[in-house]
């Protein structure tokens, strides 16, 4: 039996990593960070447990990458939903509503994420998923009319993180509409932009328990690449 081609192996590795990211988001959202083990993540993903440490140095880094993937894809979906627009104020409103929506709809997951960022032994870990999130937010700031994106992007990031934290503080959470109002005031946004709290959420902004669209574990109807012998690889 001839070995699989490099392209097939690369596709298998990509899908395996995607399944781990999706499993991490699902399990932490269901059970919390401490109750979620790397073994459970591997089992949910249908992967060998050794693959977790192959792709990620530890559970905290895996969870950070997984949440950053969820954040950047949620934000991307909100920014690009129909009717599509390049108007800066509307895109800023959509960005704010997308991130605040995660705090409202996935409180366990986002609370664990914020707690992880404050852990001194790990802290904020730059990763490809975080960089994609940063690119979207920087583009949002630029389209909103910033003359200094390098200054204004970190401020937007800090304000959004602060709002998520405030919405999730146990015992004294601030209402999301109140936080939204403050952010909209700062960026001079009309209340009816984005997705107001009392409005029906358009497609792609509701809390869907099926997260598979955010993790490219395989596109329905699209087969795995074939090796030169014409054999299709199968996930393990």
Walkthrough of the structure:
Residues 219-236 have low confidence and may be disordered. Helices cover 58% and strands 0% of the residues. With 236 residues, it is mostly helical. The protein has helices at residues 6-31, 38-45, 50-55, 59-80, 88-105, 107-117, 128-143, 149-168, 176-186. It contains 9 helices and no strands. It starts with 5 loop residues before the first helix and ends in a 50-residue tail after the last helix.
Quick structural summary:
With about 240 residues, the chain is mainly α. The protein has helices spanning about 5-30, 40-45, 50-55, 60-80, 90-105, 105-115, 130-145, 150-170, 175-185.
Cα-atom Rg, whole angstroms? Answer: 19 Å
Element pattern in H and E? HHHHHHHHH
Approximately how much beta-strand content do the residues carry? under 5%
Oligomer: single chain
Work out the helix count: 9
Structural class: mainly alpha
Shape: globular
Q: Could you describe the largest sheet, including whether it forms a barrel?
A: none
Helix content: 55-70%
* Structure summary, number of beta strands: 0
The mean pLDDT is 85
Q: Termini separation (Å)? A: 18 Å
Q: Unreliable segments (pLDDT under 50, ≥5 consecutive)?
A: 219-236
Provide key terms for this protein.
mainly alpha, 9 helices, single chain, 236 residues, disordered C terminus
Write the layout of secondary structure elements.
Elements: H1 6-31, H2 38-45, H3 50-55, H4 59-80, H5 88-105, H6 107-117, H7 128-143, H8 149-168, H9 176-186
Helix pairs in contact: 1-2, 1-4, 1-6, 4-5, 4-6, 4-7, 5-6, 5-7, 5-8, 5-9, 6-8, 7-8, 8-9
